[in-house]
Amino acid sequence: MQSGRGPSAAACLMLEDQLKRMVRGDAKLKHREKRMGFIPKGSDTPFGDFPKEAFAARDENGKKTPRTPRTPPICTPRSPRAPGDDCNVAPPVAGAFLRRAATASEFRRFYDRGDLPIQVHHGGTGNKVLWKVEIDKLDYHHYLPIFCDGLREKEDPYRFLAVQGVYDLLEKGRSKILPIVPQLIIPLKTALNTRDPEVIGTTLKVMQALVTSAEMVGEALVPYYRQLLPVLNIFRSSNNNLGDRIDYGQRKRVCLGDLIEETLQCLEMHGGEGEETFINIKYMVPTYESTVAN
């Protein structure tokens, strides 16, 4: 669980975004990701979207391009391949590490509709989450899966509220968390399948907090390893090769390979007694070695 010192996990994500903008000198990083489809687009107005005819065409850099009259496509028969043509065509890229297009989450839909008892408190030392209702009185079967579905958001305030809301719910949940573990599998799997390193790192930290939030939660996750661990097996070797240099950002826990190893160890330690947990992890991540047995 989060410590009381320093900024929260959600605030660290906002600080990291600002740091990337300053280091790269690119203030429109999020805008470009949204045009590429990695961040879902919101509505143009509170009443809906403008018609597509009202927008001007734009190029890859976001600049307007003059409209050209649309011509009907011309269908021509395919010419036969000549004997001298080069037939050595390279195979397509598998794309296992490529980011997937993002879709709007249920958290975004519920928040835009005003159905969530949460809002951002803009304080002098940083933003905080203000709950309109006591957390103990919330229906965890309804709200916790919605907040977990918002973990794949990369745009504030959705990401800030979703990430911090999940940690707050896990901290106060106790015995309410175990019965709804099956409902959290699909949101966690959807967040991991985005193949976005930033989203995967945030989801892994939430999984560690989920396992340690209450008793028997780690054992309840064992039957769902086949849904959660395939992506971890793909990115397990994603480490920073710095040579003889020092990584001064270790405290941020953004190295995906180390974070995956830490998550697998946490799952094994809280997965119950016996070798069943290790066998299930080993089945999905063949290169994993047990830390409990050693």
What does this protein look like?
The chain is mainly alpha-helical and 294 residues long. The chain has a domain at 9-28 and 101-241 and 249-284: Serine Threonine Protein Phosphatase 5, Tetratricopeptide repeat. The protein is 41% helix and 3% strand. The chain has 12 helices and 2 strands. It has helices at 9-24, 29-36, 106-113, 140-149, 158-173, 181-192, 197-211, 217-220, 225-228, 230-234, 256-269, 276-284; strands at 118-122, 127-131. Strands 1-2 form a two-stranded antiparallel sheet. Helix 1 packs antiparallel against helix 5, helix 5 (158-173) packs parallel to helix 7 and helix 7 (197-211) packs parallel to helix 11. The protein starts with 8 loop residues before the first helix and ends in a 10-residue tail after the last helix.
In short:
This protein has twelve helices and two strands; from the N terminus they run αααββααααααααα.
> Based on the structure given, which CATH architecture of the domain at 9-28 and 101-241 and 249-284 is correct?
Alpha Horseshoe
User: How does the helix and strand content classify structurally?
Assistant: mainly alpha
Number of separate strands: 2
Q: Largest sheet, order of strands side by side?
A: 1-2
- Helix percent reads 40-55%
How big is the Rg?
23 Å
Strand portion, in percent? under 5%
Q: Which fold name is given in CATH as the topology of the domain at 9-28 and 101-241 and 249-284?
A: Serine Threonine Protein Phosphatase 5, Tetratricopeptide repeat
- What's the CATH C level of the domain at 9-28 and 101-241 and 249-284? Mainly Alpha
Q: What is the distance, rounded to the nearest whole angstrom, between the alpha carbons of the first and last residues?
A: 26 Å
Number of helical regions:
12
Q: Catalogue the unreliable spans.
A: none
* Gross morphology: globular
Main beta sheet strand tally, sense and closure: 2 strands, antiparallel
Mean pLDDT: 81
